[in-house]
Amino acid sequence: MAQGDFWSDQDRANKTIQTLKTLKAQRTPIDQFEQGLRDLTELLGIIDGDDQSSLAQLAQDITKLEAQFGQLEIQRLLGGEVDGKHAILTVHSGAGGTESCDWAQMLLRMYRRWADERGFSTELIDLQPGEEAGVKSATVIVKGPYAYGYLQSEEGVHRLVRISPFDANKRRHTSFVSIDVVPEADEDAPIEINEGDLRIDVFRSGGKGGQSVNTTDSAVRITHVPTGTVVQCQDERSQLQNKAKAMHVLKARLADLERRKKEEQAAKEYQSKQKIEWGSQIRSYVLHPYNMVKDHRTEHETGNAQAVLEGKLDPFMEAYLKWKAQSSTQH
Fold it and tell me: Which of 19, 135, 209, 222 lies at 20 to 30 Å from 288 by C-alpha?
């Protein structure tokens, strides 16, 4: 980065900066832990065993160091080939009509709040609004170190139980939404896409937007016929820009499909995704008659459902990473 011609190649410069951010995300927690360990060792050498305030400070420092060590353990679990990449997350409403669309919007907000708290950026590239409320589907690119490593825990069906705000009789409803997550593909990734395998449709952007939205056929939908993969983008005003972003997402999904095929067990799971309804959920969010969020894979749960919906997802993600590592050693 110190080279005089560093910015002459914008793409290469951006990749270098991203690499630096990833390396810092790895190195900084280690440096902090080592410094904390040195400070604690020094404190142990000078502490007065009868000084209660010093003993209390020592206990606080040990607790802090234990928490840092726990974070290093989580970082170690994020060692997969694609864990360090940005993520492309798609929300699909399922069984439940308007209820499900509203639930999809709640989940989209939850993930964007989680990303904001981590200092990650999010770019909404496609949004299909529900007929009455919420969203039918939405795709967002989450950019930050290990975004995919963390968000891989969210792939699957999410179930919500609550008193419906759309039911005049205030009855309890159950809604389902599926989350799909793939790592963003590198621009130079060896994924060849044959133009003859693509069906490209243009249509008028829907939903609320800028002044030019709904006036031109700028939205783009691309179908990769051999795999049945469909992506679309309507965020930009230019049809050309929307096509470029849709191709970017398509490349990531095809790259992810190839990666999963190499992992036979994961590939089988990918090809046999269950319907977005009863019995297939990975996590349940109950808002009535009590408050609870429970992950059905890891058994991790909390009674503070509101905090989870505000983006406090780290405990669930960390529990998933530990569960995944334990499951892989058992197989």
Answer: 135
